[in-house]
Design a protein that fits this description.
The protein contains two helices and no strands. The chain is mainly alpha-helical. The radius of gyration is 41 Å and the shape is rod-shaped. The chain starts with 7 loop residues before the first helix and ends in a 16-residue tail after the last helix.
């Protein structure tokens, strides 16, 4: 088998082709890696959106629960005061029945309900 002679011009063209192929392979590898990365991120997006919705629902539920606990604590304190504190009971009853003592000035503030 005879050896092929390569001239400097043929070697330059061959090296140029090899560099082009290596560069193309690198670009294809980079494109493939970026594509896989975007695919992973895109597949996780619906789960993140659903997680955000569930987190918002949880916060809303916790706020309602805290409001109910606050109301319960307020009612317990008021019940304890009505049972144990005679002066509070008197003030509460007089306010509710619109009674006042002679010479006493009562200021009423109406609340919007």
């Amino acid at each position: 088998m005879a050896k092929t002679k390569y001239t400097p011009q043929k070697l330059a063209r061959l090296e140029s082709r090899v560099r082009f192929i290596k560069g193309t392979n690198r670009l294809l590898y980079l494109f493939t890696a970026i594509s896989f990365g975007l695919l992973i991120v895109a597949s996780a997006y619906p789960y993140k959106r659903e997680n955000d919705k569930l987190q918002a629902k949880l916060r809303s539920t916790q706020e309602r629960e805290q409001a109910a606990v606050d109301i319960k604590e307020h009612r317990e304190i008021e019940l304890h005061a009505l049972r144990e504190d005679q002066s509070y009971l008197e003030v509460h009853a007089r306010d509710r029945l619109n009674y006042y003592r002679e010479g006493e000035k009562v200021l009423r503030f109406e609340r919007d309900r």
